[in-house]
Design a protein that fits this description.
Elements (H helix, E strand, L loop, with lengths): L4 H26 L2 H9 L3 H10 L2 H28 L8 H27 L1 H7 L1 H10 L1 H16 L10 H16 L5 H12 L5 H4 L1 E2 L6 E2 L4 H8 L6 E5 L6 E6 L18 E2 L2 E3 L4 H11 L3 E5 L9 E6 H9 L6
Parallel strand pairs: 2-3, 6-7
Antiparallel strand pairs: 1-8, 3-4, 4-5, 7-8
Length: 331
């Protein structure tokens, strides 16, 4: 019995450290950075140490992964050497050790510790910092090399939009989900954040009002006629067209009407220039273009008509904002 004590002890130690490193990795992702910063600002030494530890996450994760693999390797070698002494196992000791340890490590060194650290990340990451600090110090050189190689491989083929890729999107969604579960975000705030992220997947044609439902006026109409057209309606702007309705030439703004004095003047003299955007433009780019152009209304046009800007509909700033915050009763 005594001769098996050291291998069994190594297996247990390897299992414990593999579970600790595995759980700590999940704990880092679930750690509430705001609470950690508050504790560090209060000169909490443990929080200050963890804050320094997570300040270089790629390097830290590399150290944790190395520690996990070393722990698994030590436990596997210890059990294999123990089984190799048994005549019944013989040369199949490594296979038997793998069969025995695989389900044990999966449950006890992966699933269980990850779930525990996920639920109590703020407490456990600070409490069990020292084994990770020691491993991080000892494995600093190989971890730095591993981190650099990983960064280099990840940068291959990355374009200008690398900062907005699916990995970043997944991180944002995870943080939003965490904040919602902790009660840091209300239901409205949660939906608003998710809707903002969905803007890039929607196009202008998805929110525009089709031209056949838009109140328009010909450029031959007088100011008085358009005033009468707008009376009883909560409109401040009306598209003005020349010839066909799909040939929008400008926008009539109700605030410009008093400049004409009477009501018999042609509206074409005071219309403002129309702002045209492609109907297939993503909403987040439309919002940016409207902001930079200081426009409240855009005319969605068909890119398939290169000879002229064939209007398909109109969209206002209100239409896009409602995609984020929901229906607005008054604007």
């Amino acid at each position: 019995m005594i001769e098996f004590l050291t291998p069994v002890t190594l297996v247990i130690i390897g299992l414990l450290f593999a579970g600790l490193f595995s759980g700590y990795e999940t704990g880092i992702y679930c750690l509430n950075r705001y609470r950690l910063n508050i504790r560090a600002a209060r000169r909490d030494r443990a929080a200050m140490l963890v804050k320094r530890l997570v300040s270089r996450p790629h390097h830290l994760i590399s150290s944790i992964l190395l520690g996990t693999n070393i722990s698994v390797y030590v436990a596997t070698v210890a059990l294999t050497s123990c089984l190799a002494r048994q005549t019944a196992v013989g040369e199949s000791a490594d296979m038997v050790a793998t069969v025995i340890l695989a389900p044990i490590f999966f449950v006890m060194a992966d699933v269980v510790p990850k779930n525990i650290f996920r639920l109590r990340a703020d407490t456990l990451v600070v409490k069990y910092r020292w084994p990770v600090v020691v491993a991080h110090t000892i494995l600093s050189v190989p971890a730095a090399i591993l981190s650099a190689v990983g960064t280099f491989i990840g940068s291959i083929g990355a374009g200008d939009d690398a900062g907005s890729g699916p990995g970043v999107r997944a991180d944002i969604l995870f943080n939003v989900s965490e904040a919602r579960e902790r009660g840091c975000l209300s239901g409205f705030q949660d939906r608003a954040v998710l809707n903002v992220m969905l803007l890039s997947e929607k196009k202008l044609r998805d929110v525009m009002v089709p031209l056949d439902r838009v109140v328009c006026a010909p450029d031959t109409a007088s100011v008085g006629e358009i005033r009468e057209l707008m009376s009883g309606r909560c409109y401040s702007r009306v598209p003005v067209y020349s010839g066909g309705r799909d040939c929008v030439t400008g926008i009539f703004h109700i605030l410009d009407a008093p400049l004409m004095g009477g009501g018999d003047e042609p509206v074409r003299q005071i219309i403002r220039s129309a702002f045209f955007l492609s109907a297939d433009m993503p909403l987040h780019l439309c919002l940016r273009a409207m902001q930079s152009g200081r426009r409240h209304m855009v005319v969605a046009v068909d890119d398939g008509e290169p000879s002229r800007k064939a209007a398909l509909g109109i969209a206002t700033l209100k239409d896009i904002v409602e995609e984020i915050v929901g229906e607005l009763a008054a604007w």
